[in-house]
């Protein structure tokens, strides 16, 4: 990780890969030969030859549930300079979204990815909007050059589990 991207991953924040509920992960409009596990699963996402690719057009809609409640701090999306994602909208705890209703709900955050982001630099999210996340919906609306195919090489989610809050560190408020 480069020094400039280190600031987007705070102390105590971890890659949330181990907390994804793989049995319920979904991706709409993915190519059958270039599917979501290529970009998100350990071992696959490190292989530059593998990627997630859109099918009918440039849009992708991902649903990622977690095995426990998490706090999401930042997201890293790696992709090619030309066909990499550009506008990424995120929702917490929104189930059953499809392309027909994705614009009916205001997103919790919107990231417009720069060339630096596409090289793996994490994007800080509106942390207060992602405090008690049971699932994350990611809508990749377009790509860098408005081509018909969007390619995602790697997606990493950084945050913490809610259970990791150190309760011993909190001070009791005395009644006066």
Query: How many strands appear in the DSSP assignment?
Result: 10
Average pLDDT works out at 90
The top-level CATH class is Mainly Beta
Structural class: mainly beta
Task: Tell me the Rg in angstroms.
Answer: 17 Å
Tell me the distance between the termini.
49 Å
Residues in helix, %:
under 10%
Structural domain count: 1
General form = globular
> How do the helices and strands follow one another from N- to C-terminus?
HEEHEEEEHEEEE
Low-pLDDT segments, ≥5 res: 1-6
Tell me the CATH architecture.
Sandwich
**Oligomer state of the chains in this structure:** single chain
Quote the beta fraction.
25-35%
Instruction: Please tally the helical runs, counting DSSP H or I stretches of 4 or more residues.
Output: 3
CATH level-3 fold name: Jelly Rolls
Describe the structure.
- This protein has helices at residues 3-6, 37-40, 115-118; strands spanning 14-15, 26-28, 52-53, 60-78, 87-92, 109-112, 123-124, 133-140, 151-152, 154-161.
- The chain is mainly beta and 176 residues long.
- It has a single domain (14-161), classed as PITH domain (Jelly Rolls).
- The strands form two sheets. Strands 1, 2, 4, 5, 6, 7, 8 and 10 form an eight-stranded antiparallel sheet that branches.
- It starts with a helix and ends in a 15-residue tail after the last strand.
- 35% of the residues are buried.
- Mean pLDDT is 90; it is low at 1-6.
- Belongs to the PITHD1 family.
- Residues 5-176 form the PITH domain.
- This is PITH domain-containing protein At3g04780.
């Amino acid at each position: 990780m480069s020094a400039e991207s280190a600031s987007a991953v705070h102390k105590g924040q971890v890659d949330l890969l181990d907390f994804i509920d793989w049995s319920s992960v979904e991706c709409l409009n993915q190519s059958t030969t270039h599917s979501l596990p290529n970009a998100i699963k350990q071992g696959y996402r490190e292989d530059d030859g593998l990627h997630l690719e859109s099918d009918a057009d440039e849009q992708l809609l991902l649903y990622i549930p977690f095995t426990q409640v998490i706090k999401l701090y930042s997201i890293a999306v790696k992709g090619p300079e030309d066909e990499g994602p550009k506008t990424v909208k995120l929702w917490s705890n929104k189930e059953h979204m499809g392309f027909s209703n994705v614009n009916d709900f205001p997103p919790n955050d919107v990231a417009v990815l720069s060339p630096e982001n596409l090289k793996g630099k994490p994007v800080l999210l509106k942390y207060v909007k992602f405090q008690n996340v049971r699932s994350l919906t990611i809508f990749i609306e377009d790509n860098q050059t408005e081509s018909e195919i969007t390619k995602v090489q790697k997606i990493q989610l950084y945050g913490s589990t809610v259970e990791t809050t150190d309760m011993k560190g909190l001070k009791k408020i005395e009644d006066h």
